[in-house]
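thoughts on both lines:
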Amino acid sequence: MALKDIKTKIKATERTHKVTRAMEAVSAVKMRKTQTAALAGRPYARAALSILARLSGTADLARHPLMTARPVQKVALVLLTSDKGLAGALNSSVIKKAEEAMQSYAHTDVTVYAYGKKGEEYFARRGYTIARAYENKKDTIELSLMEELAHELSRGFTEGVYDAVVVAYSNFKSTFEQLPSVRRLLPLALSDIEQLVKDIVPAKGKWSELSAIAAPTAYTVEADGNDVLEYLVPRLVSVSLYHLFLEAKASEHSARMVAMKNASEKSKEVVQDLTRLFNKIRQAGITREVSEIISGREALAT
């Protein structure tokens, strides 16, 4: 390999290193921003969960349409994937987890709500019904879209169009760990919401401790408990779905940050190897030229 070609490769790799470092920094900022948004909504989710815990013993809550379990024959799958690349195996892991979950719903009618083209294309090729498909190219999550989707899923559940609603997404555990997960959204259950609140916080750090939610034996509602439930329970569906979207976004940015970090480190190794090869070839050329000079001088001396 010519020295000029090696120098060209070194410069190209260094430029790639600058790009991957910049993308790593951008993804880190976006990841922290998304995680902060999820943490900021935690007090609201805990307050709503606390009210439900206090009402958990009432018959009105047990009879609420969004909390009534029934035999599952029709399932709505909300699939959260990314339309952007350079995020490692994030999308494939979520799709694989969702497919495994759907195998447990054998002989049932599955309808897919795909947020992201990757998931939509995968399940459409396999004959699943795609009710709605959204692009997932923005770094922010539109609240109006979340409320619209939550309202449509809630209405479908109460009208008997779906017997269960599940969400497949990537759960953000830490910067270097994103766990593909499938969570039941409907019928709503206190245990599922409590687990959601726990999953919002990181495994370590200043937000890692949560106090237990108290549930007293008696709770008096004025003027009408039904009014509270009719407002609170649908809002909890929207909040749960929104937090799942935030988890997926944080996982996407984290996975891309880690991928770009690995690419940056690899590009540095490539530059070092090419530089070593460049010096080795150049040294060999200098040695050859010196040998030729010495050999010529000895030939002239004789």
About this structure: The longest helix spans residues 225-301.
